[in-house]
Amino acid sequence: MFFESTSPEVVSALGKAGAAFAICFAAMGSAAGTGMAGMAAVVAWKKCYAQKKMAPFMLVAFVGAPLTQTIYGMIVMNKVLKAAEAGAMYHNLLLGGLAAGVAIGLSALMQGRAGAGASDALAETGKGFVNYLMALGVIETVALFVMVFITKAVS
Amino acid sequence: MDPDIQIQVYASLGKLAAALALCITAMGSTMGTGVAGMAAAGAWKSCYARNRIAPFMLVAFVGLPLTQTIYGMIVMNATIRSIEANPSSIVLPIGGLVAGVAMGVTSWLKGRAGAAAAMALAETGKGFINYLMVLGVVETVSLFVMVFVTKAVA
Q1: Could you tell me the pTM of the whole model?
Q2: Residues of chain B numbered 26-65 and touching chain A (CB < 8 Å)
Q3: CB-based contact B66 A124, cutoff 8 Å
Q4: In the CATH scheme, what is the homologous superfamily, with its name and number, of domain B3-152?
Q5: Residue range A12-60, pLDDT digits in tens
């Protein structure tokens, strides 16, 4: 059966698929997060221009925040690749890489949603940039933890 | 199957259960911090719009679901230790996976409770300790899971 194959090529390829999953799912989350925050920022700027208020350029920081998760996905991908090339068995690499990618991606998605709320709030009130950034930083930390801790399980 | 390969497969499946323990817990943490983060942003906005002091302590409600990821890591380590000590059994490490789900759900619900707490604190400016105690009770569930499951997967 496919999943019982122990041919070195198949084992290595399945491990590498886990590496690809890690970065791709993280990137999907980043895409969704930056997309949501981007849409909210555009609407917030539009409101500012329509009301002849100053449009805060700093909303770009909220849009860009979920981008970092793709970098974390790449770091996990490199770890999984290294293990796959060393000939490690693939189960933990394939599904562990996938799970890490989903967790990191979900963090990017939720960070983008919170960033959308922060964009709206900052554009409307002009206050609280540091507060919003701290909240986004906390959400980011989850992805950072996953990236650091998963090393043991995908080695 | 060759016995050496079989041991490698068991070790790999055990590490998979460990990875899932961490990742599923982290998924719950992201949901929790995300929900609480959105609520905190809304609560701060409403404070600024009414020219009231925006309580910085709302960050505590956003950050609380983060702790479960640390618990997930501890369960992951226990699971890896278990599979390294006895690579012929995959059944025990699966407990790590189930613990991950339990802790992830706790984290998510703690975030939802934290969202309500953020709204309440921003609106009234009172009750921080009360809200924190409630969140502490929710946290205790995952603490119990972490402590007790470590015995079960050992």
Answers
A1: 0.93
A2: 26-27, 29-31, 33-35, 37-38, 40-42, 44-45, 48-49, 54, 56, 58-59, 62-63
A3: no
A4: lithium bound rotor ring of v- atpase (1.20.120.610)
A5: 899 999 999 999 999 999 999 999 999 999 999 999 999 999 999 999 9
